[in-house]
Specification:
The protein is an all-beta fold and 263 residues long. The chain is built from no helices and 21 strands. Helices cover 0% and strands 49% of the residues.
Length: 263
């Protein structure tokens, strides 16, 4: 149950998941309760004040546990188109990022590549335009990133990068700008609508009881294919927000999806 002013994001929350047990939660009286029949606590609102998950009126307190939506086999060696739109507002202006690219993920050989081309329009008293290209390649346990200036940096591949998951906790893997994105473990939030064709995973972050909403992330996964369809994130929701929308295409097999060009 949530009480407060929904227009401003101010709210108080009643049920709280117990971090020591996935099936236990604390109710409004402070009493620890246990979900029945192997169900788990399904609260999706994270409070930075106590590092606990709290339930709102849109959450089911107890839910059936869902398997993490790992990348399906259709991703292996296929191309996925990626389109990213970022709107960053600030006092007296707005930054608009548009990024288009391709993502290739190969679980069997533990290889991954993301090539992106971006355009920035900064609209303010000092308006300007910028474009850039970025490439990220993971091979043999190392990730190589080359920015628009040709600078290459390396890092160890993430431990959970393979097989990979539709739920990464934020849109950070698709963004090529300098914005810092909040990231928490995405939690199952139910279906997008009554057709039950798309699962929604994500989280919403608050400073604490009665505090404003800080950020949110959503990932939309096709139930039939396991393919990640799109992502959404908001940062700095209480002031000048940054809004991110990511749309991903279906995996395209390079050997069968394109006509051969005879030369």
């Amino acid at each position: 149950i949530v009480r407060g002013d929904a227009r401003t994001g101010l709210a108080s929350f009643v049920e709280t998941c117990d971090n020591t047990s996935v099936s236990e939660y604390t109710d409004a009286s402070g009493t620890t309760q246990t979900c029945d029949d192997g169900m788990i606590c399904g609260c999706t609102n994270f409070f930075s004040s106590d590092n606990l998950w709290h339930c709102s009126d849109t959450d089911s307190v107890c839910i059936t546990a869902q398997d993490e939506p790992l990348f399906p086999d259709s991703y292996d060696g296929a191309f996925v188109s990626v389109d990213v739109g970022i709107i960053n507002t600030f006092g007296g202006g707005v930054n608009i990022w548009n990024t288009s690219g391709f993502f290739v993920h190969d679980t069997a050989n533990e290889k991954e590549r993301y090539d992106a081309s971006s355009h920035l329009r900064s609209l303010s008293s000092g308006a300007y335009y910028q474009r850039r290209t970025d490439t990220s390649v993971t091979v043999d346990g190392t990730t190589y990133k080359v920015d628009t200036d040709g600078k290459c940096t390396t890092s160890d591949a993430a431990a959970d990068q393979f097989p990979g998951s539709a739920t990464a906790g934020s849109v950070g893997r698709w963004a090529v700008d300098s914005y810092g994105f909040t990231s928490y473990a995405d939690r199952y939030m139910g279906y997008e609508d009554d057709t039950k064709a798309v699962q929604v995973w994500g989280w919403t972050s608050y400073g604490g009881v009665g505090a404003y909403k800080l950020a949110e992330h959503r990932a939309y996964v096709d139930v039939a294919t396991g393919v990640l369809l799109r992502e959404h994130q908001v940062e700095q929701a209480m002031s000048y927000p940054t809004t991110v929308e990511v749309v991903l295409g279906a995996p395209e097999d390079v050997y069968t999806s394109f006509e051969t060009i005879e030369g």
